[in-house]
Write a structure and sequence with these properties.
The complex is a heterodimer of chains A (485) and B (484).
Chain A: H1 6-14, H2 20-38, E1 41-43, H3 46-62, E2 72-76, H4 103-111, E3 115-120, H5 154-161, E4 167-172, H6 178-183, E5 187-190, E6 210-215, H7 218-228, E7 258-262, H8 272-287, E8 291-295, H9 303-318, H10 337-348, H11 351-364, H12 370-390, E9 396-400, H13 416-421, H14 427-432, E10 436-444, E11 447-455, H15 460-473
Parallel strand pairs in A: 2-3, 7-8, 7-9
Antiparallel strand pairs in A: 1-3, 4-6, 5-6, 5-10, 9-11, 10-11
Helix pairs in contact in A: 2-3, 7-15, 9-11, 9-12
Chain B: E1 4-15, H1 54-66, E2 70-71, E3 74-75, E4 77-81, E5 91-95, E6 101-102, E7 105-110, E8 117-130, E9 134-136, E10 145-147, E11 154-160, H2 167-183, E12 196-206, E13 216-221, H3 224-243, E14 251-256, E15 261-267, E16 277-278, E17 285-286, H4 289-298, H5 303-314, H6 318-324, H7 328-341, H8 346-364, H9 375-386, H10 392-403, H11 410-417, H12 425-438, H13 440-447, H14 451-464, H15 471-483
Parallel strand pairs in B: 13-14
Antiparallel strand pairs in B: 1-11, 1-12, 2-6, 3-17, 4-5, 4-16, 6-8, 7-8, 8-11, 9-10, 12-13, 14-15
Helix pairs in contact in B: 2-3, 5-6, 6-8, 7-8, 7-9, 9-10, 12-14, 12-15, 13-14, 14-15
Classes of the chains: A alpha/beta (485), B alpha+beta (484).
């Protein structure tokens, strides 16, 4: 049962082969047993989970259940959930109990009837690519406990990979769903900006943040996205579009699909064996009837520098509310108001968060704004235009998700630029606001490799179709790490 | 003083009369228990997002149309970043580069009577923003309290050009703006509650000099009197500084009403770098021509339009028309009076409203809305003057009686108190004869060329008539008799 797909779990629940309480207990017990080793979850509340499971069972019994009612799921600790500690991986919010639900939580719990198992560990305020910046300690990759699971949704990735949960939510500002999915052998989807509401999702970089599902397969992701997506009047950047069934095209044949390969994603900077796995996956697509098209994203080399202006700029302002006045960490001793601000923020934030606040404050400062922030916004438009051009000749763009497999804990922690470069292929997608996925496509030295798929705006259903057909033809996504049974 | 020219520009924060806040659904009602009207968005809990209140935008459109400005088809909300405990997000959502209203102007009447003149003040811009909360520094045992009820209340910040040249002009501008925002229903104008507050940018320069002097900004003036006192003090202070050889440093100052002085709050060096940037949580505000047209259709007749109508249709002077349209209440009162007294009596209606009624209200410290004499009562009184039932002098008595509730209509007061004017010429003639017989001394003086003696005789006749004789008839008859 722990390896079952969401569809299988749904059928088992509907057929009363298992109750939601039993299923939830199964995963809660696994968390209790395995989490101390990988540190994927930071908050578990058995009673809250079992209450939700009982309510789900009642809905199933009453015949008012939705397709995913009663299925347990892990929630990234970036989503506010009423009555639940919501930390965002930070000392600043280590004791913050949210008085309200994020829209994603409300839709998944109250509407779809999913049962939250706990809150997953993450890089502090989603700033990181290795999960080492968390106040609650690093998460370990279930494929190799000496290695990182990726970040910032590293706790979610590790939880699903270790089958502490059948699936999880993540958020992706520069690759935070796709990169950990790649490093932990999961399927992860970052939707088009505006498809999933950001209300109640603690902001890192508002114009880039987007929530999405992380699971064992494209099919699971499609079913989860059905519960997450939709217009929300509480989020002004949410898009008012008709509700979609993202699973509708899963089985469509791929004959005639045009796959664009940007030369910029196949040059230097990527591990050769990772690249070989990606090329093998593309060859598999050709067997499935797809054609290969050469495309170019000439400005993509500017995406990392542009991102590290825009994201910190927004973050420096978004994180101003954490001032120790109304909630969150306040320094125990201070002499004055300014002293309280300084000490609370100096003690409450970790080093990476402070680094980005400093960068963001600098680039927005008088005299620097035009040279950095406005310039980065111009580059952002150029990058988006590159994709618009590319999609004139192809349906989906492919390449590696991450330039390497999972690296060792501590390996890049001292070198922020090396760390930032691990998102070199994912960041442009956020800057353009496009949907992107990572799909398992092989192993190097026993560590998973991810294939990145980038679709046109609102092409989530198509991306899921492209990923699903590949997963029908391959079994990379079904491989499990050793030692989790 | 005479060789100095004063330059004043005013920034006004008008609290918009919406039911809910500009970016949340919390109530904007004044006076609730602290922090009872602050929702998750106002408290800036982690994860919350702003959603723009369309009613606040409509207020801005109304204002833009009322001052003949351009309503921007696209404007942008920006974050103004700074730390303060009553600013929960650590930034204020405002507008910077692209405000919702650009340009426009306001015509004001400065001074009274013969010294009155008209002045056009240009507006730079008006933009939407949210208010901060309040810090409460009393009664917290050495700590400060924070009340976030006001946080997120919609404001329209209205910025004038530095077009004013005296504190009187500044006050006239502030009063006109105050009347206008109430007229178009976007602000309740309650200055005690902080719904309408002004910052004055003040500088002085030698007369004839083209460039402006260095300005100092006086913050948060919440009454017209303080505005005038603060500017007058500041101007004198700046002149003294310059005349004593010191340079004015750009600064923000506060006015202390108790001492009547301004004192420095922060210098230019201490000024914040607000790190403005477009708020990524809000899309650019796009206002369609249709929306503007719809709001235009809902606007009441504006003071400027009404002023033109009073001049052209009612034959009032520009001064009268401007004075009467200084507030919607006064204009409405005047129009109600004219509706009954008739257009032919528009001028007397104007005089009564502007002079007699205004003086009486002033004497009792009452607002027009509290006037014991309603417009129909005043119109009834004016009709009795017009048809010679009473003289202007008697009318003042009747008005006073109406004011004191001694009757509900002018006719009732006139009847009850026997104030009807004597217009029967034989009755007046009898009185004139009586007076002439009893005052031979005055008659002789008049005949010797002393015009004053005539006035004395008129006074005697009026006295004998208990003021009720028609003054014109008394005059005519006296002249005739004395000539004869």
């Amino acid at each position: 049962m722990i390896h079952a797909s969401l569809k299988q779990l749904s059928q088992a629940l509907a057929a009363k082969q298992i109750s939601s309480v039993e299923l939830s207990t199964l995963f809660l017990d696994r968390i209790e047993r395995l989490n101390p080793q990988i540190n994927a979850l930071v908050t578990v509340d058995r009673e809250r989970t079992l209450n939700a499971a009982r309510a789900a069972d009642a809905r199933i019994a009453a015949g008012t259940a939705g397709p995913l009612t009663g299925i347990p799921i892990a929630q990234k600790d970036i989503f506010c959930a009423e009555g639940w500690r919501t930390t965002c991986g930070s000392k600043m919010l280590a004791n913050f109990v949210s008085p309200y639900d994020a829209t994603v939580i409300r839709k998944m719990e109250a509407e779809a009837g999913l049962v939250s198992l706990g809150k997953t560990n993450m890089d502090e305020f989603a700033m990181g690519s290795s999960n080492e910046t968390s106040f609650f300690g690093p998460v370990r990759n279930p494929w190799d406990n000496a290695r990182v699971p990726g970040g910032s949704s590293g706790g979610s990735a590790a939880a699903v990979a270790a089958r502490l949960a059948p699936a999880a939510t993540g958020t992706d500002t520069g690759g935070s769903i796709r990169q950990p999915a790649a490093l932990c052998n999961l399927t992860g989807l970052k939707p088009t900006y505006g498809v999933v509401s950001r209300y109640g999702m603690i902001a890192f970089a508002s114009s880039l943040d987007q929530a999405g599902p992380m699971a064992a397969s494209a099919e699971d992701c499609a079913l989860l996205l059905n519960t997450m997506a939709g217009f929300d009047e509480r989020d002004s950047t949410s898009l008012d579009r008709p509700q979609e069934d993202y699973a509708r095209d899963l089985d469509k044949p791929l004959a005639g699909l045009r796959i664009g390969l940007p030369k910029e994603f196949f040059g230097e900077g990527c591990d050769a064996e990772v690249m070989a796995a990606v090329r093998a996956a593309i060859a598999e697509y050709e067997k499935l009837g797809a054609q290969i098209v050469d495309v170019s994203l000439p400005n993509s080399h500017l995406s990392v520098p542009a991102y590290y202006v825009i994201a910190p700029a927004e973050a420096s302002s978004n994180l101003s509310r954490f001032d120790g006045v109304r909630y969150g960490y306040r320094a125990p001793e201070y002499d004055s108001l300014d002293d309280m601000y300084m000490k609370s923020r100096a003690q409450g934030f970790g080093a990476e968060v402070k680094r980005r606040i400093l960068i963001g404050t600098y680039v927005l400062s008088h005299g620097y704004y035009d040279a950095y922030y406005l310039q980065a916004q111009r580059i952002r438009r150029l990058i988006a235009n590159d994709f618009v051009e590319a999609f004139k000749s192809c349906d989906v763009i492919m390449g590696p998700t991450s330039p390497s497999t999972a690296f060792k804990l501590g390996e890049k922690a001292a070198d922020p630029v090396q760390m930032y470069l691990s998102d070199i292929y994912t960041i442009a997608v956020n800057l353009a606001g496009l949907p992107g996925m990572s799909v398992p496509c092989g192993f190097v030295g026993g560590l998973p490799v991810g294939l990145q798929l980038v679709g046109n705006y609102f092409a989530e259903a198509q991306l899921l179709n492209v990923a699903h057909r590949y997963q029908q033809a391959t079994d990379w996504h079904q491989r499990r790490p050793a030692g989790i049974e | 003083m005479n060789q100095w020219e004063v330059v004043i520009g005013i920034e006004t924060h008008a609290q918009l009369a919406t039911v809910t806040k500009i970016f949340s659904g919390a109530s904007t009602a004044f006076g609730a228990e602290p922090n009872t009207q602050a929702c998750a968005v106002d408290l800036a809990l982690p994860g919350v997002l702003p959603v723009l209140n369309k009613k606040a935008v409509e207020c801005a459109i109304r204002f833009g149309l009322a001052i003949g400005a351009e309503v921007a088809q696209k404007s942008v909300f920006a974050r103004k970043n700074y730390f303060y405990p009553d600013l929960p997000k650590g930034y204020q959502i405002s507008q910077m580069d692209l405000p919702v209203v650009v340009g426009g102007n306001i015509t004001l009447q400065v001074g009274q009577g013969d010294k009155a003149y008209e002045k056009v003040v240009r507006l730079t811009r008006a933009h939407l923003e949210e208010d901060a909360g309040k810090s409460l520094h009393e009664d917290f045992h050495g700590k400060s309290g924070i009340d976030l009820n006001r946080a997120g209340t919609p404001l329209l910040e209205i910025v004038s050009e530095p077009d004013m040249r005296s504190s009187d002009e500044a006050v006239a501008y502030a009063k006109s703006l105050h009347a206008l925002v109430r007229w178009i229903g976007i602000c309740d104008g309650n200055m005690q509650e902080g719904s309408f507050r002004c910052d004055a940018n003040v500088s002085v320069r030698p007369k004839g000099q083209a460039e402006f002097g260095t300005r100092r900004e006086i913050k948060n003036l919440n009454s017209f009197r303080f505005l005038k006192e603060a500017i007058d003090f500041e101007v004198q202070w700046q002149i003294n500084e310059i005349e004593e050889g010191r340079k004015i440093q750009q600064a923000t100052v506060l006015f202390d009403p108790d001492s009547g002085e301004t004192r420095m709050m922060r210098s230019k060096e201490d000024a914040h770098d607000y790190r403005y940037f477009p708020d990524p949580d809000l899309l650019p505000l796009v206002i369609s021509p249709d929306w503007i047209a719809r709001v235009k259709g809902e606007l009441p007749e504006l003071p400027g339009q009404m002023r033109e109508r009073f001049v052209h249709e009612l034959g009032l002077s520009t001064y009268d028309a401007t004075t009467l349209t200084a507030s919607q209440e006064m204009a409405a009162y005047f129009e109600a009076a004219v509706a009954i007294a008739g257009k032919a009596n528009a001028k007397p209606c104007a005089n009564w409203v502007m002079v007699d009624l205004a003086a009486r209200l002033n004497k009792d410290g009452k607002e027009l809305a509290e006037s014991p004499v309603a417009a129909p009562q005043l119109a009834g009184l004016i009709l009795r003057i017009a048809d010679n039932t009473i003289s202007n002098n008697i009318a003042k008595k009747v008005f006073e009686a109406l004011w004191n509730g001694e009757g509900t209509t002018a006719d009732e007061v006139i009847e009850k108190q026997g104030l009807k004017q004597i217009t029967d010429s034989s009755a007046i003639e009898a009185l004139v004869d009586e007076v002439l017989a009893a005052n031979q001394g005055n008659v002789a003086e008049f005949k010797a060329g002393k015009e004053k003696a005539f006035n004395a005789l008129v006074g005697q006749v009026m006295k004998a008539a208990k003021g009720k004789a028609n003054p014109q008839q008394v005059n005519d008859l006296l002249r005739a008799k004395l000539a004869g």
